[in-house]
Amino acid sequence: MEHIKLLHCCITIYLVIQLGLNCFFSASVKVGIINGTEAEPHSRPYMVSIQLQEQHVCGGFLITDSFVMTAAHCEEHFKENWDKVTAVIGAHNLKDNDFERIAVDQHYIHEHFTVTKDKVINDIMLMKLKKSTENSKNAQSIHIQEKKKARKRNDKCSVAGWGCITTNGNPSDVLMEAHVKIIPPETCKEQWSFYNDSIMLCAGGLHHGFCQGDSGGPLVCNNFAVGIVSFQNKDCDHPQQPNGYTRITGFLPWIKKTIHGTK
């Protein structure tokens, strides 16, 4: 059976406090950019660092002025501590404080989200912020893909985050990015038995991709967010399986219902 690494750092509050942002291997859930480069500062104004007690836990991205999209499995870190969860907007270097921190008002996890040690399904969550980012510095939402499009083999896309840059390594203070290629669905199905092409897609992972700490970040193709960082092989440096993403177009009715239902 595949052993899934759900992509984030520091599984409990205790470990966040004791270990800071050191990323470590966990049998349950953890992603960072592998073989990537530092992003041009503020070139990805939609990127969000989702933090617990002001420590980076997961990535996310603005899809409206008030909503952040991320992975549902990130919620395991927050549990009963949502009052201590914030979204860091407009950041590049998480150490320089040149960003805005906004509290989370509500979070919405897909009702059929399922995660076990061998699979993750419907891995999507929306977070409504307590204030709009309309006038925030270096912040702008990204368009999500609204029609399922058969991405061509080897389509060039990109992924970014503040996660670990090696397996069990340290997270990055600055936003990192990597270019990745779309993996054909038949190849992904061979490598991940639970793969469902209507709600998932694969890209990168063999040479460039994500590691611990990037869960919830976007897969971007042609300036559209098409996927959400979801699952990976436990070895970021020498993975035997492609990186897995939640396919955003598989959840459009739920996304629209959730956003419009909260206004």
From TrEMBL:
<dbReference type="InterPro" id="IPR001254">
    <property type="entry name" value="Trypsin_dom"/>
</dbReference>
<feature type="domain" description="Peptidase S1">
    <location>
        <begin position="33"/>
        <end position="260"/>
    </location>
</feature>
<dbReference type="InterPro" id="IPR001314">
    <property type="entry name" value="Peptidase_S1A"/>
</dbReference>
<dbReference type="InterPro" id="IPR018114">
    <property type="entry name" value="TRYPSIN_HIS"/>
</dbReference>
<protein>
    <recommendedName>
        <fullName>Peptidase S1 domain-containing protein</fullName>
    </recommendedName>
</protein>
<dbReference type="GO" id="GO:0004252">
    <property type="term" value="F:serine-type endopeptidase activity"/>
</dbReference>
<keyword id="KW-1015">Disulfide bond</keyword>
<comment type="similarity">
    <text>Belongs to the peptidase S1 family. CLIP subfamily.</text>
</comment>
<dbReference type="GO" id="GO:0006508">
    <property type="term" value="P:proteolysis"/>
</dbReference>
<dbReference type="InterPro" id="IPR009003">
    <property type="entry name" value="Peptidase_S1_PA"/>
</dbReference>
<dbReference type="Pfam" id="PF00089">
    <property type="entry name" value="Trypsin"/>
</dbReference>
<dbReference type="InterPro" id="IPR043504">
    <property type="entry name" value="Peptidase_S1_PA_chymotrypsin"/>
</dbReference>
